[in-house]
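Why do we bother with holo predictions? Because pocket geometry can differ from the apo form. Keep that in mind while you read this record for zinc ion.
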Amino acid sequence: MRRKKHKNTRRTLRFYRIQFGHRPPYKVLLDGNFAHALEAMKKGESKDLIERLLGDTVKCYTTHCVQRELKKLGKEYAGARQLLKRYPLHKCGHDEEHCSAADCLAAQLGDKNEEHFFVATQDKVLHRRCMSVPGGAVLFASINGVHLETPSALQKQRVKLEEQRNLLPSQAELHSVALQVDGAAQQQPTTERPSFRRKKAKGPNPLSLLPKKRKEPAAAVREAGSGKQQQQQQPAQAAQPKLQQQQQPAKQPQQPQQQQAHKDGEQQQGVKRKRQRRRGKASGGDGGGGGDGGGSD
Ligand SMILES: [Zn+2]
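The structure, written out:
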């Protein structure tokens, strides 16, 4: 039971610390009826009880309005009045005018409880008023000791609204060009839902369409090997025309020289034939023993 209470208290304190900025030393405003309840329980010093509950240092305050109300209540609340005299007075601003203790303490919280007060009271009406204020935290006493009230539904709702408001862009951000463009894009009616489809394959795998390599016998492999050699030689032969083509422009200027040499060779052969004929005639004329010459004579 005590462990559960301690867990709830830690959770509530974390809520007030994160959402509303309550920090130790926690400031506690003590009401007269709360002091009277602690005096009746006689469980110890009120400040010690509160510090033990919150797990950190505490500064306890009371107001002039609370003390004035206790004084009016008579001797029955004298013990509570003596208890509150130990703590410093918080300047409530009601010194001259008449103000009830509940109204005085509620006025210290204001609309937002900017000073992060904890109000320790047994007054249920004041209790509700404090819990309706964002950041208003309430301590109360029971037979089991001092307790911290869990945050109200209104306070939780305020926190949610504040978080949603923080997620929205600020005025400065709305004026930026980038967000204006995005806003215009968002304002356009979009009937189609964003689709996240996987890319389907448009056809079979192109690698699977390649012709399969057949396993050939050893002879075929040799032929294939010779064929490969031929193929390897072919590129060399095929390369020759290129060389010839490259050499042709160089040979073209040499053609007149070759024709000239060819003509010279023909002239030389003609001269040789003429000489052979002359020799043949000479031999036939002189001896008359020649084959052709003898026959003709
Ligand atoms: Zn006051």
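Residues 63-65, 92, 94, 99, 104 surround zinc ion (CB under 6 Å).
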